[in-house]
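Running log. JK asked me to keep both predictions on one page so they can be read side by side. First protein, sequence followed by its tokens:
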Amino acid sequence: MMITTREVTYVVDGLRMIAHLAQPDSPGPWPAVLIGHDGVGLEEYQRQRADDLAAHGYLALAMDYHGGEVFFDQPAAMLARVMPLLADVERMQAIGRAALDLLLAQAGVDPDRIAALGYGAGGQIVLELARTGVPFKAIAVVHPAFPDAKAEDWANVTGAFLLCTGSEDPLCTPQQVLDFGSALQEVGADWRVNIYGGAEHAFWAQPRNPDGSFAEGDAHTMTTVPGVSYHPEHTPHAWQAVLDLFGETF
């Protein structure tokens, strides 16, 4: 399917955000997906997720929560931006809400068929939206940061959850995933877990050279946080799981 893409700017959290919008070249209305990038920033991989979703018939918006910055080789600067954000639930909800409102304002969107996809910190942002009662039909998160796993906070969610992480991820461990799943189980939510054997954090992120080109192998050539490596076999597995969830839902 042919698609159309464009940048969309908006202001939230005191920053001018630059989101990536992708839509099918077919008659709407379309189901819509809100995408939250991981802590590094909105870069090529998340833009490609939006493009691939559009090719599958979804209107997809990859939000921005760094004001256009991407911290490829600046882990200290990334953490200085991300950690205070993760400590402030209202701030995360405001950032997510602004992006969701932008998505829902697009021509051709079906407001009764919305889903969310989040990576890392962007995973917690979309989970925080779900916790406020946004009626996502499906929520997929890959190595997310998690809200508190208190069952009473999730009693009103109605969508299906996909929780993914790597077996060797020190930042989003399988136990954290299962603890959050237990809260969902307690309230009778629809949830499933994928653990990818041998994968670490951000296992979808292909290493880059200092000039921005992609590097060979699975080890990152630039400074990053510990516990991050590329896993080329599991990267498509995780993406297929997301497509399967959305396909079943819509």
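And the second, directly underneath as requested:
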Amino acid sequence: MAIRADAASAVARPHDTDPEMGAAALRQDPAKARQRRLPDPKPLTQHGPARVIAMCNQKGGVGKTTSTINLGAALVEFGRKVLLIDLDPQGALSVGLGVPAQNMDRTIYNVLMERRTSLRDVRVPTDIPGLDLVPSNIDLSAAEVQLVSEVAREQTLLRVLADIQDEYDYILIDCQPSLGLLTVNALTAAQGVVIPLECEFFSLRGVALLVDTIDKVKERLNPSLEINGILATMYDSRTVHCREVFSRVVEAFGDTVFQTVIQRTVRFPETTVAGQPITTWAPTSSGAAAYRDLAKEVLAL
């Protein structure tokens, strides 16, 4: 799906609301109005090759890691095999799944920088059958500098994924909150991008820059790259601000915005402490239901 950078610039600026449209937005929940019932996905007869999706936004704290974990877990519930790749030196994805990556001798850093190390050597199973993880820790921060001198440095992740892609249905990459070389590697290796976007105006300001980066990668490195969708996160229908921001996002990006909206809830911080996805920690919660709906949308792409 194409997104125009000028639309992103427009939505990133808070501006006066049309009185009639503003009054209508105040009276109803625009996110609820867009929701549709989604059919259950069909079961698979065989696995692979994997579709690679980069979870990307250069702003931190917008729900990238939470969405990577829970989308992966929801896809597994629908019979898919999923590999999660932690491409953030902070290692939040690993922590969120209860994997002590800071104590590991080999992580994604070794895969990227050592020819003799493969993803099979460093991946670890999670507590969810069918969901595997390639962990990360602070060592990965050195890769950004070391890759600069490498030949075809933007394709490093793409090369290492080739050996393992047939074993999975989806590979989700949790990108770091920046538009540096590691993120460019993720975009070069991916077929799709999911942009988690917190429903507040400061989060909207960086969308144009992110879209511009995606367009450049598509033009110069990865012609098959597409934006799968924008995922509204931390949404609170009780606040006028959230409802208005969501309306502006839909106004600018239209059908590129997922129908599924991730509501703000205390359950998500609990899952981080527990080291589990919300689909297993609180399987009947609204958050778990939302990520199952998101998985249905992703499977329908």
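Observation for JK regarding the second prediction: The beta strands are 51-55, 82-87, 124-125, 131-134, 170-175, 192-198, 226-235, 257-263.
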